[in-house]
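Build the 3D complex.
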Amino acid sequence: MIFIYAFFFSGIVCLIGEILITHFKLKPGVVTSLFVSLGAFLDIFNIYDWFVSKCGAGAMVVITSFGHLIMHGAILETKKTGLLGLFSGMFSFTTAGITATIVFSFIFALFFKPKN
Amino acid sequence: MVIKMNADRYTKIRDKIIPKPKLFKKLLISFFIGGLIGVIGELLLMIYSSNESLSYNESSNLMMITLIFVASFLTAIGVFDKLVTLFGAGLIIPITGFAHSTTSSAMEYRKEGLVNGIGTNIFKLSGTVILYGVVSAYIFGIIRYIIFGG
Amino acid sequence: MTINFDNVYLNNTSVVAGPFLYDGPLKGNFDDEYKDFYDGEKTYEDCEIKELIKSINILIKKEKNKKIDLMISSDLNNQLIVSNFASKNFGIPYLGVYNACASICEELIIAGSLLYNKDIHNIICTTSGHNMTSERTYRNPTEYGASKPEYSTFTVSSGTSCLVSDIKSSIKIESGTIGKVFDLNIKDSNDMGSAMTPSAVLTLFEHLKDLNRKPNYYDLIISGDLGKYGEKMFKELYKEEYGIELNNYIDSAVHIYNNEDKRVLAGGSGPSCLPSYVYSKIIPDMKSKKLKKVLLLATGALLNTTSVNQKKTIPCVCHAVSMEVI
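Done.
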């Protein structure tokens, strides 16, 4: 069951992204920035957490989850230390993703040349 | 000298001649591929969390790392950009898009050196996601703190 | 503004054709070819420089080592580095010029004008294009897969050169019209065809008006790189604005690639698109008297990434050069 919800969640988010890129002619960078902000926004009321519990990885693979994780980390820290937590908690849950991206990009850039 | 060509008349000519993108087909493809990535992610999550030594958090991290690795690798061997031409937003909106933009920028500027090339350009396309993720979380975090007190 | 030339002739030409071009409809008509975007070099820039040097060397050999007084060059890289580095190999006085894809006609007009000086006899005009370097200069890292709309064009990879001189040959460069920068508010940097068409229409009109000629004075009018849709828009716009239906007009971008290959989208573009087509197809047709009088309309989009990001329009220019068989 969770597989079907996963399919629909990430499918629909990508569909909306495609509409914004192809029909409204927004650049991919603009669309991903909007989505990541949306992910953060949806965590003001814990909505994104509900999506993750229902759709599992479907809600985690899209870039909105990045915003959700950043927001989540910030919120968790503010529960402990107040507003200062907004500064110290943001990357708590996203470190794996960002670190992996940086390390893999760097290593591959060293050994692979652009082709085409 | 007055040039009498008119932008509105030209727009009418352009609208007649420039082809409209085949939106429906692209939407269908993006939906399916995006959905597929979600399903693959869920599959990986199940596989990793069935391993008893991994907590749920660790499994989800590992799932992201796997997807990022595959996207980076396919970018490195020159395949991912061809897939994006076919599958559009289905590959750009998931975390694979973030990995792809970072890897392609790093690869492109490698020839300009480790610092001036890779160092200054690696986040050329993906930096915007990190920037707006942090800034929006900050603003919304303050709003949430005001509403819920934490 | 139109200039008439008295004693200006096109001598030999040379085209070194790259991927998508060498095996297209003009296959076999090039002086040399290279099959991948690196051609054994470490960077795309080095490859582009190498092919331009090859083209110039082939030309100099064809001209049996005449004394070359001057070289005028253009390419799409920032600060013309490809032309700069290629020229370093030749020890010939050098003028780098930039008008994007309109450069070839700009060069021919400058060369024709300089030949009035009795001390100048032989001028080499070169253009260079490379799909990967221009992709990087104007758009995204080359491995990044942002999908392009089907009306965008695909930069032609080739190094081209020709000799313009006051030594008589069968092809006379008889006039040049210097275009005005003009646009009709197009901002989409993927749609160069739409951006450049108005300036091309304007220059054709002014050229014909200045010389008191009708469009069918020429056997063929060839524009630079408006692409598949730009070619249609050019005819429509000319008819709309000046009431004439052109039946002797083509755009070189549409005839330079194998159009069944979806990767080339709406056709060629770049400073070497028009010269590659003209030198390999039109000049031979002129020499065999299939065509007697032709008009070249080289169109250039004068944008950079800053102007695009600042949401400015794309200003364009078109220069015209007419040639005839004597």
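Residues 40 and 71 of chain A are 5 Å apart (CA to CA).
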